[in-house]
Amino acid sequence: MQRAEPQSFERVLSSMCTEPHPTARKAAERFLATNPGDPGTYETVADLEREAVERLGTIAGLGDPAGYVTSGGTEANVQAIRIARNRGDTDDPNVVAPEHAHFSFTKAAELLGVELRTAPATDYRADMDAMTHLADDDTVAVVGVAGTTEYGYVDPIPAVADLADAVGALCHVDAAWGGFYLPFTDHDWHFGHADVDTLTIDPHKVGQAAVPAGGLLARSPDLLDELAIDTPYLESRSQVTLTGTRSGAGVASAVAAMDALWRDGYRETYERAMGNAEWLAEQLDVRGHDVIGPELPLVAADLSIPMTTELRDRGWRVSKTGSGEMRVVCMPHVTRSMLRSFVADLDWY
Amino acid sequence: MQRAEPQSFERVLSSMCTEPHPTARKAAERFLATNPGDPGTYETVADLEREAVERLGTIAGLGDPAGYVTSGGTEANVQAIRIARNRGDTDDPNVVAPEHAHFSFTKAAELLGVELRTAPATDYRADMDAMTHLADDDTVAVVGVAGTTEYGYVDPIPAVADLADAVGALCHVDAAWGGFYLPFTDHDWHFGHADVDTLTIDPHKVGQAAVPAGGLLARSPDLLDELAIDTPYLESRSQVTLTGTRSGAGVASAVAAMDALWRDGYRETYERAMGNAEWLAEQLDVRGHDVIGPELPLVAADLSIPMTTELRDRGWRVSKTGSGEMRVVCMPHVTRSMLRSFVADLDWY
Fold first, then answer.
1. Distance CA A159, CA A166 (A)
2. DSSP result, A282-314
3. Could you report the predicted ipTM of this complex, rounded to two decimals?
4. Where are the domains of chain A?
5. Class level of CATH domain A22-261
6. Residue to test with chain B: of A2, A7, A124, most B Cβ within 10 A
7. Cα dist. B224→A300, B217, B238 in Å?
8. What letter does residue B89 receive in the DSSP assignment?
9. Helices A43-59 and A248-261: crossing angle, nearest 10°?
10. For B240-273, what is each residue's pLDDT tens digit?
11. Cβ–Cβ below 8 Å for A246 and B29
12. CATH number of the domain at B264-348, please?
């Protein structure tokens, strides 16, 4: 493997993954050969998974949480929709979500045979009138996003939960990326703020655990029962995950990262990232670009030059929103000096 | 994380996971912070994934294979059934499989809204008369298992493929566990032996890669197109995986393991494991137990004592089949001296 070098994060501005915290990396390496999908055989990592869920519950305002460590936000979102579909009393289930919901909801709908109804947004947040218009008796879940993938904005979660309640659907919040930044903001986003049923929050994004460590939380264990499949020839009885064999590395590193960083470490990470995002927004603004955000540490800007190729040649990894804006995700590995170099390179063109 | 110790493999006889090869472990550690789900950003690991699929194709008799590195056998099996469902021209799709098919097919059926029809087996292998009886115009896939989870037996794959062909369905082979042992046997199991459309083969089992590294292979890329979901705001265009963010560690370690072990290393592993399984079968047989196998390195025996608790207390991890037989999986980490100790402990009771 000497021939291939892993991606360095030195110029990565496009990813919602980041360099794991050193303690998290160490834990991942130690637990590389364990399988939390077989808790009868791999007991230690099964215990660690319970700790991971406990800590995620603390962050997301839920005492005594149900849930598990998923392969990532996609699995958590798919499973939330699967719970809602299986719980719903309809042959023609639909899910109502804002148009900026992550593409994993499209995947979930295709997989699960559920209709996905997406409502236009207003000012990059879910438009509750449009959402309400789409919801009906066959709606099994209403989705809100706390930290959108494209712009980092936060939907009005209490209103999303109210709509879910009004139509007898489950309320799912996707805080896959935002969940480790939001505790240090004034946003209402979690189980303690609204009648949320399920929530996605990924340790392997801002939580600084190693991939794969996503998180699905549920208000009560009976919600997870909707996912149970019998498991003969394992020592355990049933399995709720989407995958079977799973990485103990992700689970162990999630616990290690949260032990090391919750709460002050994550607060410092948030403040630094938000400071960087505000600095970048200001730099782009003074150069005459239309800037969107930052509401959380993510900046999008309508750069009119077709610059991604040139920037890639200089090593930068940036991506674009569906509408074509340049998008910079201020992850923990993104420093002020990276952003200074980036802005200097933008000026050069 | 000092307080928790990962499971040692010293007494694990129940798992289809194993200690990764040292080179595979090193590669996993180096690529811990990469995401093959975002190939535009993480180019090196995307290249490695193409190499992994190429090597898996070589092992499974398929030049120029389509496929990808999954989170494990469950994802690969789910995706194969999803391909078949999406390709099938019916509103009421069913899948025909032998009763010993892995529980991931139950999960797939529940997820995807497909009816799973399971046929009784004869002598632990798919009974083709029973399978044929269940197949009809709405059958979208016929499944064969090459190395069953419970007994390690191999279904008659050419006959399974013929049945699939006869009813216009896809043929899927689950060689998740068996795939790295079968090349050194006389069994017909792969793309070169029969008209197989999709096949599951997991580097993180007998392939000795780190979890998560499963494998889905498809005879042609258009089969994978059935899984494609658009991915705005990634630099790539679409995504076929079930999960989104994925572990670069699994991909890199799969390539490293196959580089190190294909072909002679895997042959030695097979011969040692099969020798161990035959030795264990003989030991149990002379003690008067009814032994099933080994057809591949897996031994099941009808031990009449309720012994799992006592064995667990002595550190052994064994599991039972659905019919209650004790089941020992001879993975690469299982040595003759482990089995000697195990048999001695059985004698003690």
1. 10
2. HHHHHTT--EE--SSSEEEE---S--HHHHHHT
3. 0.91
4. 22-261, 264-348
5. alpha beta
6. A7
7. 33, 9, 11
8. -
9. 40
10. 898 888 889 999 999 999 999 999 999 999 999 9
11. no
12. 3.90.1150.10
